[in-house]
C-alpha cells in the first residue's frame, strides 16, 4: 500500500515549494505597483462610498460630544445660555456645518446604498449618475442649512 502511494507522490506534491497541488504554477506577471495614494484616480462611485464610510465614522466619533452639548443645553437655564453663546461663535458654526454635511451626505449615500442593495442602479452609468446626485443633493442641502445657520 505504501509503495503504491509512494508511486503516486509526484502527482500530488509540487516539488518546487513542497505544497500539495495538482495544478501547474501560475506564471508570474510583472505588474506596475502604484503605492502613492495621492496619485490614484478613483471613480466617483468609489469616492462616494469612501466618503459615506468617513462621514459615518465622523458622526460616530462625534456622538458623545453632541450628546454632551444636548445635555448641557437641557440641564438648566445657565448652561443653556452658555451652550447658545458657544454655538454662536463662527468656528462653532463651521463645526456645525461640517456635522450637517456629514449627516446629510451619510443619509443620501445610505439611500443610494439601499437602492444598490435592492439591485437598482447597478449599471455603470446609473452608478455614476447616482453618485453625482448624492454629491449634488448633499451639497445643496448643506448650503441651504449653512444659509439658515448664518
From TrEMBL:
<dbReference type="InterPro" id="IPR014314">
    <property type="entry name" value="Succ_DH_cytb556"/>
</dbReference>
<keyword id="KW-0479">Metal-binding</keyword>
<keyword id="KW-0472">Membrane</keyword>
<protein>
    <recommendedName>
        <fullName>Succinate dehydrogenase cytochrome b556 subunit</fullName>
    </recommendedName>
</protein>
<keyword id="KW-0408">Iron</keyword>
<feature type="transmembrane region" description="Helical">
    <location>
        <begin position="91"/>
        <end position="111"/>
    </location>
</feature>
<dbReference type="Pfam" id="PF01127">
    <property type="entry name" value="Sdh_cyt"/>
</dbReference>
<dbReference type="GO" id="GO:0005886">
    <property type="term" value="C:plasma membrane"/>
</dbReference>
<dbReference type="GO" id="GO:0009055">
    <property type="term" value="F:electron transfer activity"/>
</dbReference>
<comment type="similarity">
    <text>Belongs to the cytochrome b560 family.</text>
</comment>
<dbReference type="InterPro" id="IPR034804">
    <property type="entry name" value="SQR/QFR_C/D"/>
</dbReference>
<comment type="subunit">
    <text>Part of an enzyme complex containing four subunits: a flavoprotein, an iron-sulfur protein, plus two membrane-anchoring proteins, SdhC and SdhD. The complex can form homotrimers.</text>
</comment>
<comment type="function">
    <text>Membrane-anchoring subunit of succinate dehydrogenase (SDH).</text>
</comment>
<dbReference type="InterPro" id="IPR000701">
    <property type="entry name" value="SuccDH_FuR_B_TM-su"/>
</dbReference>
<dbReference type="GO" id="GO:0006099">
    <property type="term" value="P:tricarboxylic acid cycle"/>
</dbReference>
<keyword id="KW-0812">Transmembrane</keyword>
<keyword id="KW-1133">Transmembrane helix</keyword>
<feature type="transmembrane region" description="Helical">
    <location>
        <begin position="50"/>
        <end position="71"/>
    </location>
</feature>
<feature type="binding site" description="axial binding residue">
    <location>
        <position position="106"/>
    </location>
    <ligand>
        <name>heme</name>
    </ligand>
</feature>
<dbReference type="GO" id="GO:0046872">
    <property type="term" value="F:metal ion binding"/>
</dbReference>
<feature type="transmembrane region" description="Helical">
    <location>
        <begin position="132"/>
        <end position="149"/>
    </location>
</feature>
<keyword id="KW-0349">Heme</keyword>
